Amino acid sequence: MTKIAVLVGSLRADSLNKKLALNLEKLAPKGTEFEYIDLRLPLYDTDLEVDFPKEAAQAKSVIADADGVLIVTPEYNRGIPGVLKNAIDWVSRPYGQNSLSGKPLAVAGASVGPIGTAVAQANLRQIAGHLNARLAGQPELYLGLAGGMFDENNELVADAKGSAEAFIENFVAFVKAA
Q1: pLDDT digits (tens, 9 = 90+) for 39-87
Q2: Structure pTM?
Q3: CA torsion through residues 142, 147, 151, 154, sign
Q4: 159 falls in which pLDDT band (50, 70, 90)?
Q5: R_g over Cα of the chain
Q6: Rounded alpha-carbon distances, angstroms, from residue 5 to 36, 44, 51
Q7: What CATH number corresponds to the domain at position 58?
Q8: Structural domain range at position 53
Q9: Domain count along the chain
Q10: 20 to 30 A Cα–Cα from 35, which one of 27, 91, 137, 171?
């Protein structure tokens, strides 16, 4: 069984990125298990590390137990959402106990805009590199104009499904090769 920890950078109930993550889960090779991390964490504060919040400890534990990490995120103001950055800060702490270090990691995203989440993904790759995650490079998955990329059952339409399937198959192979 290949375990993938998933961080979806949107808390919105009808999130396009949550829909994308769920579709990637369905398209993943057999024997792949996704575990979603709840990003409703307290705001990161070094002072809180003394009594590490249980929600943050749980997120760290999910990542530590996973074979790989998948981040599926929207783009807010040409960057990553604050809730996602907050979660990354928590799972990389305390100093010297970075749960992302050495983990295979891939980034994908959906946006109603035409460029998808290209800038947010570049931002995430920079952060992940600093945290010593092992980044999967290709293929990339930028789902632009995503409002029309899901049918009435929240399934990816044919135009997007092939790219999503190639992305998740490559990532799972990357994780297994690690």
Answers
A1: 999 999 999 999 999 999 999 999 999 999 999 999 999 999 999 999 9
A2: 0.96
A3: positive
A4: confident
A5: 15
A6: 6, 20, 24
A7: 3.40.50.360
A8: 2-177
A9: 1
A10: 137
